[in-house]
Amino acid sequence: MCGIIGYVGSRPCEELILEGLERLEYRGYDSAGIVLLEDGGFRTIRAVGNLAELRKAAGQTTSTATTGMGHTRWATHGRVTEANAHPHTDSSGRISVVMNGIVENYARLRSALQDDGVVFSSETDAEVIPHLIARRYEGDLVAAVRTVIGEIEGHFAFVAASADEPHRLVAARRECPMVLGVGDGERFIASAIPAFLPETRDTLMVESGEIVVVEADSVVIYDGDQVIARESAVVDWDADAAEKGGFDTFMLKEIHEQADALSDTIGDRLARDGTVTLDGLGLDDATLARVERIHIVACGTSFHAGLVGRYLIEDWAHIPVHVEVASEYRYRTCLAGPGDLVIGITQSGETADTLAAMRVARERGAHVVALTNIMGSQAVRDADGVLYTRAGLEIGVAATKTHLAQVMALALLALKLGQVRHTLTASGAADLGEDLRRLPGLVSEYLNSPASAHAMEVGEKYADRPFFLYLGRHVGMPVSYEGALKLKEISYVPTEAYPAGEMKHGPIALLEEGSPVVVVATDGHVFDKVVSNIEEVRARGAQVIAVATEGNDEISQHADDVMFVPRTPPLLSSVLAVIPLQLFAYAVARARGLNVDQPRNLAKTVTVE
Ligand code: AGP
User: What is the model's pTM?
Assistant: First the structure.
């Protein structure tokens, strides 16, 4: 968690660092800070809250410093206070550090340092690092950092500066992300590429375990004492992707980018005859055909995409699919092995639990594929193969377009598996391919229709309700889970999501006169069953808000409000049905005056367990 950026060059860097931090704010926004190397020492500015607060604290004075670092924090160890905000310095004020991650043995290190008389000024785990570096420092920051990373346990990425070496930064990473930006006479180091994207597109990846020495005209990467040669690569992301593009919020913009996310994810992978080509899986067709079981591991919204994928793979390819939240999977006795395909779904490619679950399965000999939106992310590096979604950068903490892209990627995989296993006929596969190809158009049609505006109106109507129950069956079940997660994470309204048929085994007791129940009731073989469940909740006085298929005349007799979506084959209905629930949640949060892009307590990338 947390975002870090460092700069060494010839330009005054205060504004570059502040702007870079603004583009990293999705990684955490409890507090922020910068340090500028000037006048033979450090000028450190820190503030509780988001980057706007840091800008206020920085004031109008402009620094001429050309070396500096910044940090935006998602608290792990220590409360949200200015003292706990990074950067942290050693007692002499000559070493400064920003860190992302966790120092697992910090308590032991801290008490050893305290025994030696070191006085700590924060409650963080990170503060041990500048103190340790200061103790090892003999005029060579690289040597000190090399010694210190041998003393600390955990996963981290940090950047260190010495006031005695004002034209260089030294960074180290273990598991947590870090990337370099190579400019003309200037270098950036950051947690993620967007931090420096407007300044340079020339990037260098830093591998886990490496140390990097960054100066204005050079970057030296070390693996231990060995210097590593590495070519830079040019990224083709559009800098505008990090802007809101005319929408009030990133979340709304990203909801409206979902048709593109779907069509880009299909790209050139789906031929007219339905043949699917998925380069990068690391399995040839013959091996893919022999896959015996599939395990899907993921967290949050990515987990919900996995649940949708299960229906598609089991129906089209007849392979049993087990879907589990990664934080549970990683600690169970793992029975995956050779012959099994394990798919880690993580839009960021950095979620600690998903990475750990993938690792466990890989150690057992399963073939592990990363399904991710981020090129070169840790998940890709830890896997045997990769299946990219092409949703573009997602800034809103609440995932929207990456979810739809994940479902599409899984649908392509399901279709491919059905073909290589001959569980689909050629004409059946071609028809399904056509169904998939139609989805982006249907999403676009929906988002530009009065129906999507109506979903927002329904959200506003119910915005003051204190609790919502979400229900769905079959493929509508993960849709209800995702709708409930969207509502709770951006509006802070308690929700419960349940398989509709399971509702009478407990959750029905929550209902009283007027309780709002959101039901995914799109057309399909379980529609009548869902209607029965609707009647059960209505009999207890509940108000029903249904998501239903356009042209279904019956549903209005059973629901107080209906959010209609375009018709698709039932198995693909989740792609459309989830959108009104995103909009519904959005409208509730906005009506409550909340910041939907940065919900409290959350971060876009969860790199801690
Ligand atoms: C989604 O709205 C959430 N913010 C969260 O559940 C997210 O999906 C989860 O943290 C997994 O992230 P990942 O896809 O980057 O692994």
Answer: 0.79
